[in-house]
Design goal:
This protein is of the alpha/beta class. It is built from nine helices and ten strands. The protein is globular.
């Protein structure tokens, strides 16, 4: 497969933009649905909680999150202005109801107040963090004491099989993510590791796997 095309796909996975970015976001919603749903399930959302998603792309899973409890507030942060705009369009009714907002930002500098979020999750973004240390510290800053942080990702043994991930991806396994969380004051719950049905990705037949690491902010 053409290397320039694979590089462009990798760039769009990192920061979707333009028409191609919209197409990539839609494809990610389909191919990563099991992982997204697993992360949402792991949040154990309760009534009146505020949920922050880092890297929500076009916000396709917002209705699912809101359906998990009464008066659930959702904040989506993405560093693609195009995705923030698209997510706002697709979730216009929820924004007008006052329970949803989308903000331009990134994990190293979240545009929310300290100790203001009940639970934070992110799906398929860890590969692109500029500094894991800064990212985790910023998450801790914004979480309430006892709040949950959930990282969902494809482990190294799986993600290396994807043709485009040879460009500008950092690889992780469950142990390395758990270690990262522990080092920054999170109490760990048992991690989740699941295998999904085989699917075609850019012409390659792949058996996807996903991991979900769950940590609680200690006081």
């Amino acid at each position: 497969m053409n290397e320039d095309f694979l590089r462009e796909v990798a760039a769009q996975l990192r920061k979707p933009s333009g028409e191609f970015g919209n197409e990539v976001a839609e494809n990610m919603n389909l191919s990563n649905r099991a992982m997204n749903m697993g992360a949402i399930e792991a949040l154990s959302i309760q009534h009146d909680e505020t949920i922050l998603e880092i890297g929500m792309a076009n916000g396709a899973f917002v209705p699912e999150i809101l359906s998990r409890g009464d008066r659930v507030n959702y904040v989506g942060v993405d560093y693609s202005a195009d995705m923030v705009e698209l997510a706002a369009i697709q979730n216009k009714a929820h924004i007008e109801n006052g329970y949803v907002e989308f903000l331009l930002g990134e994990i190293s500098q979240l545009p929310v107040s300290p100790n203001s979020i009940d639970k934070i999750f992110t799906v398929n973004t860890i590969y692109f963090w500029e500094s894991s240390k800064i990212a985790i510290e910023e998450v801790r800053r914004t979480l309430k004491p006892g709040g949950l942080f959930i990282i969902a990702f494809r482990p190294e043994g799986c993600i290396r099989k994807y043709p485009s991930t040879q460009f500008n991806f950092e690889y992780f396994d469950i142990h390395s993510v758990e270690k990262l969380m522990k080092e920054h004051g999170f109490e760990l719950f048992p991690s989740i590791h699941k295998t999904e049905p085989e699917m075609e990705i850019l012409g390659e037949m792949i058996i996807p796997e996903h991991a979900i690491v769950i940590g609680k902010k200690t006081t």
